[in-house]
Design a protein that fits this description.
The protein has 167 residues and is an all-alpha fold. It is 73% helix and 0% strand. It contains five helices and no strands. It is elongated. It starts with 7 loop residues before the first helix and ends in an 8-residue tail after the last helix. The model has no long low-confidence stretch (mean pLDDT 95).
Length: 167
Amino acid sequence: MEAVPAWAPAVGFTLLPHAGGFLGSKITKKEIPVWYESLQKPSWCPPNWVFAPVWGTLYTSMGYGSYLVWKELGGFNEKSVVPLGLYAGQLALNWAWTPIFFGAHKMGWGLVTLLLTTGTATATTASWYNIKKTAAYLMVPYLAWLIMASALNYRLWNDNRNKKQSE
């Protein structure tokens, strides 16, 4: 049996975060034209076309960072449980936001999910820093985006509380 090519883990780890983004986009595409467009948004809300390339970049960056940590620690083992477990937790929370916010129109719970994601992503970044600084640095743009996304989610929730389909 042939061994896995050396490049395969790098590609797999880098592409993994995109799986949830791809699945979430199915929900988002359906909800943007009607529900999301009906929401009152702050003047600093990014235009809709910005979200896909930003998330594509952030998913690629965090995915490659997770590969660097995995490689530095010698794969899945006792040393990698915490840093990769935190990463998996923040990624699961990240993927959960779209069905909560866009699918169920639960903006308040979306905010809670984003705040938990931000906390877990921050813990992930901190745990990666002493393992592979480059991996931690690859998380910084994601953390910045999560802060902006949390502020936007808060404003959407707060400014649209009286809408029939929102919380």
